[in-house]
């Protein structure tokens, strides 16, 4: 059985992961309209991943005798001034998710809830990987710079990263 406090906090996390899924879906649509095929594929995959993160908590909460709530999700932005700004926003959002996960870990210590503490370790590792990935992308965008064909090269770079991630998942 899970405590009411933990249940409410996990429902908040469901909402945050759900918003991330919608945010990245919105980014996929913007990238598509900008003709950035690699970025579009990348953001669609990220959106699916976030949905999976949301569902993982959803199932866990019900398994533990709690009640997972389908969240109300606010509408994300639809436009970004540059692809660089879009990835800066992704990185900022991932940092926010990491902070939320760490708060949940702290709460599970306080509640002596070792089952949830153990469950959350997967998210701790996942957030470390996601933040590293987003920092790598921002570094590459900076390296490519803003010359005449930079968008083309940025898109190819993101496509390569996306293909490697998809391949690693399939193995
Ligand atoms: Fe599930 Fe990337 O936060």
Task: Briefly characterize the structure.
With 171 residues, the protein is mostly helical.
Would you give an account of this structure?
The protein has helices at 4-33, 37-63, 83-110, 114-144, 150-170. It has one domain: Ferritin, core subunit, four-helix bundle (Ferritin). Helix 1 packs antiparallel against helix 2 (37-63), helix 3 runs antiparallel to helix 4 (114-144) and helix 4 packs antiparallel against helix 5. The mean pLDDT is 96. It contains five helices and no strands. With 171 residues, the chain is an all-alpha fold. 29% of the residues are buried. It is 80% helix and 0% strand. The structure holds MU-OXO-diiron.
Q: How are the secondary structure elements laid out?
A:
Elements: H1 4-33, H2 37-63, H3 83-110, H4 114-144, H5 150-170
Helix pairs in contact: 1-2, 1-3, 2-5, 3-4, 4-5
Bound molecules: MU-OXO-diiron.
> What is the distance, rounded to the nearest whole angstrom, between the alpha carbons of the first and last residues?
35 Å
Kindly provide the name of the CATH class. Answer: Mainly Alpha
Sum up the overall morphology in one term. elongated
Q: What is the third-level CATH name, the topology?
A: Ferritin
CATH arch. level architecture: Up-down Bundle
Which small molecules are bound? MU-OXO-diiron
Order of helices and strands: HHHHH
Instruction: Give a short account of the largest sheet.
Output: none
- CATH homologous superfamily annotation: Ferritin, core subunit, four-helix bundle
């Amino acid at each position: 059985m899970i405590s009411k406090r933990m249940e409410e906090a996990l429902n908040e996390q469901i909402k945050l992961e759900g918003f991330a899924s919608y945010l990245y879906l919105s980014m996929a649509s913007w990238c598509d309209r900008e003709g950035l095929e690699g970025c579009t594929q990348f953001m669609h995959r990220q959106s699916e991943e976030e949905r999976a993160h949301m569902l993982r908590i959803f199932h866990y909460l019900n398994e533990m005798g709690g009640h997972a709530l389908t969240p109300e999700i606010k509408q994300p932005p639809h436009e970004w001034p540059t692809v660089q700004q879009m990835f800066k926003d992704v990185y900022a959002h991932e940092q926010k998710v990491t902070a939320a996960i760490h708060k949940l870990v702290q709460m599970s210590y306080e509640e002596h809830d070792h089952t949830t503490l153990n469950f959350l370790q997967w998210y701790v590792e996942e957030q470390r990987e996601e933040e590293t990935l987003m920092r790598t992308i921002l570094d590459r965008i900076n390296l490519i710079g803003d010359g005449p064909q930079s968008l083309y090269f940025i898109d190819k770079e993101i496509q390569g990263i996306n293909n490697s991630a998809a391949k690693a998942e399939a193995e």
